[in-house]
Here is the input.
Amino acid sequence: MRLEACSWIYTIREITGGSTVVEKTGGAGGAAALERIFAGGRASHAYLFLGPPSAKKEETVLHLAQILLCTAEKGKPCSTCRSCRLFLRGSHPDFHRIAPEPDRIKLEQIREICRTVVYHPYLAENKVFFFASFEKMTEVAANAFLKTLEEPPPAVYFLALAGNEEMVLPTVLSRMQRVYLGQDPETAAAAMDGPADASLPEEELLAAGDLYSLLRLAEVKEKQERADVDAYLLSMAAFFHRRLRENPGDRRYFRFLQAVRRARENLAANVNLRLLLEDLYLSLYETGGMERTNN
Here is the structure.
């Protein structure tokens, strides 16, 4: 298996002073460059791979994990050494897959990682922890993961997949190198944000703390097509995403985004439209509304 030739691969790393270095390579050249970094022992300890979920993207990250675990001197991954064979059979003792249980990565899972991460590898030279849906980690779990993520033991690597970086706690995001698989992230960000002066249609109601009108709005919107409600939720996510970038220290926006994500998950699960919208508006209202978002 070789790396998928992605449209764009960006690696972003934070350097002293808070500035950002962006290394940009497109197509198969980007995939090959990333493979060389891993095979050459120059990989960072934590990567967040971003892009719409797909089997190909998971295969790409698992291929990089295999490179880290391969014990061959050259030509990694060789797929013939004992380490590679165990990995391909799904039974490598130094590869740990972390998935939501059932729909969230919880504090207990992160505590187990923090407990076992200090042990030496059993077979390979490295240990790899792979998160299949990193954005589904709860905020409590993410905060518990921070210290381990910032100061991991030697030879420990964290590889994570996420569909939306705005759903990842900013303090966690800043401690990982981001790799965008697929669409050019500048184009994706522009599409998500919309016009710079765009506003949330319900902003005034939230700012006024008018819960009654919001619940009446849920009653109206339940008559819309589900696709239209999904588009509405996406526009709301874009709005909060922009506010989070403008106010990175205000954790309410992260909670707002979590509430919108939960609403979209309920929508996909065919939950009654009125109920999911009422739950969303109540979550926004209880979190703090919008009274200070225009600062």
Remarks:
- Residues 194-287 form one domain.
- The first helix runs from residue 27 to 39.
